[in-house]
Write a structure and sequence with these properties.
mainly alpha, about 60% helix, 2 strands
Length: about 150
């Protein structure tokens, strides 16, 4: 904190503006922060296969070929959008409606990205694009928790 002149009295007052977050280290996947994040996310992994199995089964159950169901799971990585798309496809909704619904459901990722972007300064656009592929609701929650605990990151 530093002293800054007051606008009206000419006296100095203390600057209480918090400093901006420190930029992320460009060490990327080789740095200790990355591996700490991997360890923090490990408890999320056991819930993924059952969700994938259920979603795949439901997708095949509405008449989509298994290979296309698998590709759908790879392309649509957000579970909520996947479930919405499968439901709409099962009701023979127009493809444009399915795509628009998926985009609307995933608008939350814009807010997630805006919230964590100050902590990702100094990281290349290519690496940010890769990290965006890994972003999901649970990972966002872990990021917010870590950034609130460790302000200098």
């Amino acid at each position: 904190m530093s002293a800054i002149p007051s606008d009206q009295t000419g006296e100095c007052r203390e600057d209480t503006t918090p400093p901006p977050p420190a930029p992320a280290t460009p060490s990327g996947m080789h740095g200790p922060s990355f591996w700490a994040g991997v360890r923090a996310a490990c408890p999320l992994i056991p819930g993924m296969p059952p969700f994938a199995l259920i979603t795949g089964t439901v997708t095949v159950g509405i008449g989509i070929e298994p290979i296309k169901a698998l590709l759908m799971g790879v392309i649509i990585t957000a579970g909520a959008a996947q479930l919405a798309a499968v439901d709409l496809l099962g009701k023979a909704a127009p493809l444009l409606v399915v795509i628009a619904t998926g985009l609307i459901v995933n608008l939350r990722f814009l807010m997630y990205s805006a919230a964590i972007s100050p902590y990702l300064k100094g990281i290349s656009p290519l690496r940010k694009a890769f990290y965006s592929f890994l972003l999901m609701d649970q990972v966002f929650a872990l990021c917010v928790l870590e950034f609130s605990r460790n302000k200098e990151r």
